[in-house]
Amino acid sequence: MKKHIYRVLFIFILTSTLVSCEGWLTEPAPGVTTLKDFFTTGKAAIQAVNGTYVPLMWEFNSTYYPEWFIGDVMSDDALKGGQSIGDMSSVYDMENFKTATNNTYLLDFYRAQYQGIARANLVLEQVPLMKPDTTMNASLKNRLLGEARYLRAMYYFRLVRVFGGVPKVDFVIQSSNQWKQPRANADSIYSFIISDLESANALLWRKSKYQATDLGRATKGAAQAMLLKTYLYTKQYEKAKAWGDSIIASNEYALVSNYADNFTLAGENGKESVFEIQYMDDPTSDYGQGNGFTRGTFTVILTRSRSSKAGGWGFNKPTQNLYDSYETSDPRRDETIFNPTDADMTNPNEEIYLGSRYLNKKYAMMKPDGSYIGLSHFSRGPINNKVIRYADVLLMYAEACCELNTLDRAKWALEEVRNRARGGNAAILPAFPNYNSYSDNQTDLRKAIRHERRVELAMEGHRWFDICRWGIAKETMDTYKAGETAAAQAEMSTFVAGKHELFPIPAAEIDLNPMAQNPGY
Q1: Architecture of the domain whose range is 4-281+386-512
Q2: Using H for helix, E for strand and C for coil, what is the string for 141-187?
Q3: Which residue of 16, 197, 315, 434 sits 20 to 30 Å from the alpha carbon of 113, by its own alpha carbon?
Q4: Which whole-number Å values give the CA distances from 244 to 214, 227, 247, 472, 514, in the listed order?
Q5: Do residues 135 and 40 touch, judged by C-beta distance below 8 A?
Q6: What is the rounded CA–CA span in Å between residue 516 and residue 509?
Q7: Where exactly are the structural domains of the chain?
Q8: What are 277-292's pLDDT values in tens digits?
Q9: Distance of CA 89 to CAs 77, 84, 104, 278, Å?
């Protein structure tokens, strides 16, 4: 059942090829498949939607570009890592606020999202024209359209929080004269995301209605969680709280009893899972062939120790700042960060990066004894990327309630998360405000919720986006820099408020579609 929705090879989804044929030739050449020929059965509609999920999986084209290189490494949670500062030089530049407009990571990331958007647009154009059949009844047709809207919203969400406003394309591009589209501002993109998510919520099914083979698809709860998140980003706290209330009242989700179970193969798509990017075990050798060939995740090997027999590459190294942010008794620290001894290192010069020896455990598929689970292919693993967990939902809900001064509900949601971490033992992690010198007021509750987001979701790609949307990136990164090792400080440029919260639109995209660049680049 696992990863079922990604088992099909989506040959037809070379969208630009199919669409470019439509209307450009007065007579179709023999053997050419047109859109109207393809979208004739419910099976084709399902395949088209399946293909729309696939760019979420992509992590490599001309370079590696998993989103955590921004979400973790740009923040005070992680250093780039790798063999040296020149390893993944595009990320080195980003991490140290030296990003140029020709950055290869950003170009690959930008283009992957628009691949996903193009696929969603194709579904939303063609599937409404199709009649239900024995494979696709009216209910399934609606769900498929809801999935496409959810995914289009997800791709735009990934773009807007990295680049700000971007071109808004909500139709299938049929010819070259439609290629150049104006850059919409960020507010317009967020409004578009909300519109898609509201439509998705109306069409999607609850998680409990899905067959086991379809776990991993977008659900009503996933749409509501993204609405909660988007309204937090746009500071519409009443609406954010309302969507949080809806998710909580659905009883579709719960925290798993053991925190570490979220990061195991057995724990995938479980009761805490709201939305995961699905990966699968794949022993075939397609390493290095770029977008479209990744059925497993490169994150496993990218984050494993360089000293391991598994041949890891040592990226995304937790910082001392993150390690020290945990309460001393917090068991989540040792489930997140591995602190290897000298005896664990084959070559300390390659393992220790700018003073940090720590390793990210969450997606490395590490056994309790510190060794690694074997992989079918050396370059990638089968573990899913947990984009939204119920713990994340509870903490977003706590944040919305806190900002609305509904402090009792905010404390309830905060304590749900802390109680799972403490295993019911209040002596391990005291209830708010009895830790970190907090007082029982809104200001300190806000600090407590932000602290909890950091330690609960550490190394899951959230931190950078959180400190930017909270408006504290400058002060956070300046404080972090002051406490880093001299070696790390020597590489870092000064964070410029009003510039470095966003990245530049790739120059190659501006060459194709002239638009204004972000300030300062």
Answers
A1: Alpha Horseshoe (1.25)
A2: HHHHHHHHHHHHHHHHHHHHHHHCCCECCCCCCCCHHHCCCCECCHH
A3: 315
A4: 24, 9, 5, 24, 40
A5: no
A6: 11
A7: 4-281+386-512, 299-385
A8: 999 998 876 666 788 7
A9: 19, 9, 9, 28
